[in-house]
Amino acid sequence: MSDPSRDALHQLGIRHALSPSQHRALLGLAEPQLDGPGLPRVLTRTVALLAALLLGLALVMAVASQWGEWGRAARFALLQGALGVAALATLMLPPPGRAAAGLLTLIVQGGLLAFFGQTYQTGADPWQLFALWALLGLPLVLALRHDAPWALWSLVASVAVVLAVQTFGGRSWLPPVGQRQPLLAGAAALLALGLLFAARPAWLGAGRWAARAQMLWSCTALAGWALFAAWAEAAWGVYALLGLLLAGALAALWRGGDALLLALVAAALDAWLLAGWARWVFSGRHDIGQFLVFALGAALLLAGTVSLLMRRLRTGSAS
Question: Which H/E stretch holds residue 242?
């Protein structure tokens, strides 16, 4: 969930041109103190969310483990009853418990869809089930306006995109030549989702942790595709375009100055560079000298990335 008090204090520090130490002290007013009344509230909400996550996963795994023991009607009744109770709790509980109940509702909704697909063998591809789960869960997370349900929803949507790329790209993690348009479209869609969450428009109701979760899924997928593209034959065009997408995302996030968002995209860009560097270094025969050259390049790249990010963060604190 976004923190309007912290954002207001940040703008106040910029308006009055505070020094970096004064700016940090001012922002510290928005953080919960270890001995203050905010800590029990934070712990209660965290435990509630963790309990909802574990309860939802336990319910889904219980149905899966008893697949041959319970009848179809019993499995349907359990999942539908759990979904109804969780949805009712989402409507009736006050805000501290509403997010946890909503998270449980979203998990059970996915379990019910998976059970329906396994029972009736609809012929739908896996990406369609994940896309349907994301579509049906969208009104719920829009109404809850909390980071935890948004983080799960972003994972579901990202998995749907990755599976769709694999389905339309020849059932391969790196589509063959002539079938790589779905991969580029999926990469652009994932980064667009990440940038949308990072912008945090008011209508979305998602905060910084939801944005970081979405960027984590997006960057992981793009880094994986870049690794495959770097070592595949006739895939340098796809490899270059993936790098351009990551560089564009880093440029778009540069002014915002969120440390974790910048670090995630920078790490994915480093993985992209190291994949190409490894392909070039190890293109011939392998010996200890090549490993040393690769390690030296990786160390220099990591040092340069950390230095650049730290300079950006120090500049943001001083401005």
Answer: helix 236-254
For 243-292, how does the pLDDT look when each residue is reduced to its tens digit (9 = 90+)? 999 999 999 999 887 889 999 999 999 999 999 998 888 876 667 888 88
What's the angle, vertex CA 249, arms to CA 248 and CA 255, rounded to 5? 100
**Residue 56: which of 96, 90, 94 has the closest Cα?**
90
Burial string for 119-136 (b: 16+ CB within 10 Å, else e) reads: eeeeeeeebbbbbbbbee
Does residue 160 contact residue 131 with C-beta atoms inside 8 Å? yes
Contact 60, 116 (CB under 8 A): no
Tokens read off for 122: 């609809």
SS3 93: coil
DSSP classification of residue 299: H
Tokens of 249: 């995302």
Q: What is the pTM of this model?
A: 0.81
Chain centroid offset of residue 115 CA: 25
Q: Inform me whether the pLDDT recorded for 2 exceeds 50.
A: no
- Contacts of residue 205, Cβ cutoff 8 Å, sequence gap at least 6: 141, 142, 144, 145, 146, 150
Residue with tokens 């905060």: 207
List C-alpha distances in Å: 306 to 233, 244, 297, 300, 310. Answer: 32, 20, 14, 10, 6
Is the separation of the CB atoms in 202 and 257 below 8 Å? no
| Beta carbons within 10 angstroms of residue 90's beta carbon | 22
